[in-house]
Amino acid sequence: MSTELIDRVSERLSYFNVKIAHIFTETALEPDLGAKVEDLPLGGNLKQMLKQVGIHRLYKFQEEAYNKISHGNNVMIVSGTGTGKTEAFLIPLLDLALKGERSVLVYPTKALARDQLERVRRLASPLGVEMGVFDGDTPEKERKRLYENPPHILITNPDMIHIGLPLSYRFRRLIRTADHFVFDEVHSYDGVLGSHIRMISDRLRELTDYHVIGSSATIDASPYLFEELFGVKGEIIYGSPRRKGVAIHALLNIGSASRWTLSAYLTAFLVKEGYKVLTFVDSQQMAELIAKITARFGEENIHVHRAGINKEDRLKVEESIKSGKIKGVIATPTLELGIDIGDLDVVIMAENPPNYTKYLQRAGRAGRRSKIGYIFTLLGEDPIDTYYLRKPTEFFNRKVLPLTFDVSNKEVVKIHAAAYLAEKGSLRLGRVIPKAWVKAYEELVKDGKVKIENNVVSALPPLYSYVRSTYLRSTGPIVGLYDRDGNRLGERELPVALYDIYPQAIYFISKRNYIVEDVKLDSLRATLRRAKDDLSYYTKPVYSTHLLSFEEIEERKVFGLPVKYGISEIMISVDGFATYEISGNKNKPKQEFFYKEPIIFTYTTKGVLIKHPILEEFNEFDSIEAYHATEHVLISSARVVAGASMTDLAGISYPTGHVVIYDSVVGGSGVSKLLYDRLEEAYDISIDITGKCDCEDGCPKCIYSPYCGNNNKMLSRRKSHRLMTKIKLGEFDNSVEQNINGKPIV
């Protein structure tokens, strides 16, 4: 069966001159067995219930988790999708519930929390263990029930905890009287959300200690990571990387073909063949585009699941794919987590995921419930794709990276310091309160939201409105998207919103075309109007970025180069836009248009500042081509060494040899710090990419970027390779100090 499907796919894709570059067959055995349920010190009712649902023996890692959790140890359970990690923490918590102790299960999203309800209820209800879900959608009657009779197990999400603790005394009591806290799907807590989770944990433990349990799919976990994420010490328990069964992974060499067209074709073909298919893409707009293209291949019953669309639409898609009403879904990482959407036969990755952890998580959705899973990953003319096409075995032998998040993000610290003060009313600024929180309170004094007298900080009325307006899913301002009648269509976060939302931009929502009429950053509002569905072009912004200031945090040498990591103030100026034919050259715009007044947004983040040498054989134009290309390829290499997505980092190059690579979110995400720590490896990969590409002097396979602000002008692969090779060999003179100067190139 497996060979037959692979052969049919290979035959079909040959029409597009696409070849299967590599096949990897993954076979996972059952995890090592542990103690029999009968031999565990569990209550009789719990033993009987476990046997009734078919659990007669625990896996070894489940037994270890039971022993440690029962004794109050902080642990993180790391095991693959469908391997029993939920049971690993749930069985000991049920045992504790029968003794009168209460637990709070925290899931990253409302959808996932409610999805897990039935799974928990299956084990809890026969025991008489009370449970409930508390989130923004919980009706008032149910909230009252939970307040009056706190359940043994409460399921919620970080957003509810964030707002509920300071603004509802009844919710506060519900949470503060719990004995144990579980954070499931820890692998999703990277970037800004990881920073928020650390602050949530600090608030839950009231800056002292508490019993916390983490549960995660495969990540590079360590006691250090545990303490960074939760603020307390903990142990790591490893299970199995993948559920029992077989998965067949195929890497597709698509060459210069459109990955969006091929993803749409492959999705439509497999759905017609009777397979249930989930296609992943990292861009919201590309998810919409792929879904639109599938209709051209005769399959219109394929839907989009992504952030930024109405909750009702997402729930409808989840229910429809689970029930079998639809057979295909195009999704952003919103379906990467463990939401139950039933059996899936095939996962298609329209682009190489940002890191191997995400690849494993997405691939794990295929072949669940002991079925063979098929995973097709499209690799095209992209620097990292071509790198792995040359080294396909390395693709599957990659290291699983740790989570990346920045616990010093000032914007995040400010939000949670404010929320904690709103809960307490006043705080004495002693040794317990972190220095970063004290600085945040000093900023809030300037904003008129708090006051500090005699070393005591107190909340003022404006603080509560501020806390109510804060979000955990972002640190940047949120731009609301509206139609001409004022109906809300969605939202996007700044600054990344400016890649898609600018005057005359083509924007897709639920497979429908819209044109952005105007963008008002002062009121955080964009107006869109419906456009024809058969438009023959799409748009990209023409923009420039500027480093306004840089405050050094630390410095080191990389191959003799001075490299700094620090706080970066960035200004983005969207100066116009370019149009591209859908069926034309994606690297060459059809036309460019410029605004009378640019759209400007300024924000503070964190980044890396590198001072490259000026080579004697290069004139000024040669130098900027080399620096600009080096900036592009280093950002590409960060996808390997730092697990960055294509939009996690951005960069600026200067004629003086300075290259700035910074986090694309307000306050910083931690990705640029990981690049800073692993910059030598990034240069090695960049030298490999620029040295082995067979193009004349630059192409999408080596130095072109789809997010280049000037549409990939002023780039040279050869000069970048020469520059980095000389740096690696130490054949340069960088002794002359020079300040950043000249017109920036992005």
Automatic annotation (TrEMBL):
UniProt xrefs under Gene3D superfamilies: P-loop containing nucleotide triphosphate hydrolases
Swiss-Prot/TrEMBL GO biological process terms: interstrand cross-link repair; nucleotide-excision repair
Positions of the Helicase ATP-binding domain: 66-237
Molecular function, one GO term: 3'-5' DNA helicase activity
Entries under PROSITE patterns matching the protein: HELICASE_ATP_BIND_1 (PS51192), HELICASE_CTER (PS51194)
CDD domains for this protein: SF2_C_Hrq (cd18797)
InterPro entries: DEAD/DEAH_box_helicase_dom, Helicase_ATP-bd, Helicase_C-like, MZB, P-loop_NTPase
Sorted UniProt keywords: ATP-binding, Helicase, Hydrolase, Nucleotide-binding
Position of the signal peptide: none
Residue ranges occupied by any Helicase C-terminal domain in the UniProt entry: 265-413
ATP-binding as UniProt keyword: yes
Origin superkingdom: Archaea
The protein, known as: DEAD box helicase
High-level lineage: Archaea, Thermoproteota, Thermoprotei, Sulfolobales, Sulfolobaceae
